[in-house]
Amino acid sequence: MSSLSVFITIAAYFSVLFFIAYITGRRADNQGFFIGNRKSRWYVVAFAMIGSSISGVTFISVPGWVSTTHFAYLQMVLGFVVGQIIIAYVLIPLFYRMNLVSIYGYLENRFGLSSWRTGAWFFFISKMLGASVRLFLVCMVLQLLVFDPFGLPFVLNVICTVALVWLYTVKGGVKSLIWTDTFKTFCLIISVVLCIYFIASNLGFSFSEMVAAIYEHDYSKMFFFDDVNDKRYFFKQFFAGVFTIIATIGLDQDMMQRHLSCKNFRDSQKNMITSGIMLFFVVAMFLMLGVLLFIFAARNSISTPAKTDELFPMIATQGYFPAIVGVLFLLGLISAAYSAAGSALTSLTTSFTVDILESDKKKDEAGVARTRKRVHVMMAMMMGLVIMIFNMLNNTNVVDAAYILASYTYGPILGMFAFGIFTKKQVKDKYIPLAAVAAPVLCFILQKNSEQWFNGYAFSYELLIFNALFMFIGLLCLTKK
């Protein structure tokens, strides 16, 4: 795939994206930026959330992931569906009833100022690291396809990538994101469907033969009930999925900002459940694509790269297929990656402005708008810096990295919300930051020693549950008499 075709694809994509962002966000005020003025249609939000939930990490890493985890990831995605049903009937009515702009305002109402800021800061760290991991992946591909051929440095790649994200979110925020995410979801689904079609056609498969080949392949095993010490063990994956989705969607300002843009809580519930079911089938398509990629590599004696993240980009862009496959790959990648980055930048701006600076309490509408715009620039610059740092330190599968980060940083948030919702106890608010730091530290100790302490048991993403549990216990210890 030539550098010129890559540039033309990206330019065409962003031309459409900026046009949509301009049309939908030109008259957006602060409420439009933060929660879309609560006028979004639920079915539009449900479709748009697919693009928000699937990042560039998913697009590249999940197809390559089947070689080690097979279809076990769907066990976790089943947990996602259950988790989204819980969010729909527990959290969404609560947030609408309180008329929240930032969901962490609940913590202030329930516990106090320290709890509110603790939740906001943990979200800030989680989202900044997680979004940077995801955007780093698209920067790597662009470096390979565009910047290296022209002898341009990685730092320029990062500046251009982050600047594009900033540009299409600066005006409309959530009001624009709903519609840009709808466009990106459409591009993402079309690209993965057509990639599957072209690869299956090259292998000489009809649709039924393709399904049979995937079903009979060793990598298509989905359920693992045999070994409790296996990271793919069903109950580990399923319950990790339930609690991960509650933490990373229900207690995540980024995701809930879009869900709270619906007209009322019933519309938001329909959107939440519908998007969860659709996500299951979209992830299944990525796993099917992964099996087809490995079948293609085996038949054509292509050496599988040491990092399986590189398999899909390598086969799609190195001339094994017609140029359209490379274009579709790139279109899907930038749709997934920029969707996640754009929403993350908007939510970071919202949370920092509302929760940490408390601008909505201290300033008028014009003052809030000025602060919001400055924070938006600052968040973009910080995201670029974190991507550069991650580029220097990266040594692991980025899907694992994203979920490991979530396990450590979302646990205290999950513990605080669980304690607030399921108990009526009051706590010593000023000590909550200490408990929030102690919980991840205890989790780290537990993870490092679990195999020695528990007869070979290795923690996977269910570590999030224990992190939240430690936070819950810490809050019990801080209960006021």
Walk me through this protein's architecture.
The structure is a single chain. The chain has 481 residues and is an all-alpha fold. The chain has a single domain, classed as Sodium/glucose cotransporter, CATH 1.20.1730.10. The protein is 77% helix and 0% strand. The chain is built from 21 helices and no strands. α3 crosses α9 (174-202) and α20 (432-453) crosses α21 (463-477). The radius of gyration is 22 Å and the shape is globular. It starts with a helix and ends with a helix. The mean pLDDT is 81.
**Cα end-to-end separation:** 67 Å
Note the main sheet: none
Helix content: over 70%
* Overall CATH class: Mainly Alpha
- Quickly give the CATH architecture: Up-down Bundle
Order of SSEs, N→C?
Answer: HHHHHHHHHHHHHHHHHHHHH
Q: Which fold name fills CATH's third level, the topology?
A: Sodium/glucose cotransporter
Task: Assess the beta-strand content as a share of residues.
Answer: under 5%
What name goes with the CATH superfamily? Sodium/glucose cotransporter
Principal-axes shape call: globular
| Helix run count | 21
| Class inferred from helices and paired strands | mainly alpha
| Gyration radius from CA atoms, angstroms | 22 Å
- The average pLDDT is 81
Number of domains: 1
